[in-house]
Amino acid sequence: MAARLSEDQQAIREAARDYLRDHADLDRLRRHIDAGGRADEALWRGFAQELGFAGLGIAETYGGAGLGPVEQALVLEELGRTLAPIPFFESAVLAAGLIDAAASEARKAALLPGIAAGATIATLAAREVSGDPLPAAIGPVLTGDRLTGAAHYVPFGDAADLLIVAARDGEGVTLLTLPADTNGITVEPLTSLDLTRPLARIGFDLELPADAFLGARGGAAAALESALARAGGLLAAEQLGVAARSLEETVAYAKERVQFGRVIGSFQAVKHRLADMKLAVDEARAAVGWAAAAIADGEDVALACAGARVRCTEAALACTADAIQLHGGIGFTWEHHAHLFFKRARAAATLLDPPAVHRERIARALLDNPASEPPA
Predict the structure, then answer these.
(1) Within 10 A of 334 (CB to CB), how many other CB atoms are there?
(2) What is the rounded CA–CA span in Å between residue 233 and residue 294?
(3) Range of the domain at 45
(4) Looking at the structure, do residues 226 and 349 belong to the same domain, yes or no?
(5) Which of the residues 144, 177, 223, 255 has an alpha carbon 20 to 30 A from that of 96?
(6) Alpha-carbon gap, residue 229 to 206, rounded angstroms
(7) 157 near 187, Cβ under 8 Å?
(8) How wide is the angle at C-alpha 249 spanned by C-alphas 244 and 254, nearest 5°?
């Protein structure tokens, strides 16, 4: 994140880090996984409701703190460092951002306070089984007032109270809001690579109530694409946290693991690998700072967010893979936590489209505005 933070921003980061250190350590995470847990409800209550982090980016008018993307990115980085199995990104960032981008003031007033308070968990249900890029690959289909089809790979879909559904409606895209317990909705938990971010398949076969439409019918493609871009830029902060924690753990191990009578951190080959990891983390941090600033300023948002996603995806994948390698034989075992970070990095790489899609968006943004470029 940005090198210069205000006192309030530093306090937010420290509050998130302290709470997660005390309530979301890796031993607790392993017990949660071994028990077959999905979302950690107790951790979510404390993080979202007691600390109020669910409302960070939501306007005060709707019960939030009225802060911005920098503060959200700071919290997401801390969540990436702990792999906390809670739907902060899905509900407080992505779903809240979609509502803010597409809904009328009346609908915002009805939906956002619950999300801001942490009482309502919301998530986006949109993608078809192919996993192709959004908004082209939308699974749910709207015919008249009947919603059919399914959304696949819905993060925290089995923990959600509210579904933000993107549906194909003729030639356009329509956004809908539906309580998860609505008749005609089925939720099927999926086995996923990342054991800390559960996925679900959500099926639809129902007649829509009158208040289901979030915005103009058939005209939500631009709002969806904009909200996804912004959310992607913030998801990069979580990936930064994954990479940074992997680096720190590996440096600490290299200082204590002895081989051939020396700590392995004294070997030149290990030093080079650790230096590469440090460079990747520093570049990722700069990219997240650029994306957060772009979202806050409303300038070059698509370029900055796509750039951050590419850089942070690469950093998370490289650092988590190197962490496994440099931990040697123990790094490959189920008992060691290195694989949990590697799996989060691998799954997050495709959560809102893979790096190839973001590179295409970078090229398109530069073609549309050749003067745009990352800050020096």
Answers:
(1) 8
(2) 9
(3) 7-116
(4) yes
(5) 144
(6) 30
(7) yes
(8) 125
pTM for the model = 0.94
Based on the fold, state whether residues 229 and 330 are members of the same structural domain.
yes
Distance from first CA to last CA of the chain, Å, rounded?
Answer: 16
Residue 373, in any domain of the structure: no
Looking at the structure of the chain, the number of domains it has is 3
User: Does some domain include residue 1?
Assistant: no
Rg over alpha carbons for the chain, rounded to the nearest Å, is 21
Give the range among 28-32, 127-131, 230-234 with minimum mean pLDDT. 127-131
Share of the chain above pLDDT 70, in %: 97
The stretches of the chain forming alpha helices (DSSP H) are 7-23, 26-34, 41-44, 69-82, 96-102, 105-116, 221-256, 268-297, 301-326, 338-348, 355-368
Q: Give the per-residue pLDDT at 368.
A: 79
Quick: pLDDT tens for 153-171: 999 999 999 999 999 998 7
Mean pLDDT of 63-79: 97
111-128 pLDDT per residue, tens: 999 999 999 999 999 999
Same domain? For 186 and 264 the reply is no
> Quick one: tokens of 248?
């720190």
- In eight-state DSSP terms, residue 138 is B
Tell me if 375 is assigned to some domain.
no
Same domain, 60 and 183: no
